[in-house]
């Protein structure tokens, strides 16, 4: 059974590249550190340029027998018209998503900060003041829920606009 474990682990690792086909954003964290995320961190977040198929590029170097990369820019074949449209569509969606979720996340963070302060006040409050604090916290929770719903609605509408703008009919 112990001999099968490395083989099983290797097989599972071979399946991972197919699962890792998400957009990646590079952002600065609050302390200045570099943060990588599959979601835009703010309105200025730009998606990273990743090679579409690094396995195919590596296979092309082995196929010619020389071990040298094929003379293609960035080891990626030239995109077809449909791929160019998809790239522009993805960029449109990414920009719209960042411009909507960035400010929305800032507003939600401000609400959450208010909630944390109210929660601290709640620890030392009397019964009457405690009830008022809980009511204010419930109002903030509703505002956060509305903010998320509104942002999701706006992003979905922006996605539809980007798709309509960049997808051509055959």
UniProtKB/TrEMBL annotation:
<feature type="region of interest" description="Disordered">
    <location>
        <begin position="64"/>
        <end position="86"/>
    </location>
</feature>
<feature type="signal peptide">
    <location>
        <begin position="1"/>
        <end position="22"/>
    </location>
</feature>
<feature type="domain" description="DUF4124">
    <location>
        <begin position="11"/>
        <end position="62"/>
    </location>
</feature>
<protein>
    <recommendedName>
        <fullName>DUF4124 domain-containing protein</fullName>
    </recommendedName>
</protein>
<dbReference type="InterPro" id="IPR025392">
    <property type="entry name" value="DUF4124"/>
</dbReference>
<dbReference type="Pfam" id="PF13511">
    <property type="entry name" value="DUF4124"/>
</dbReference>
<keyword id="KW-0732">Signal</keyword>
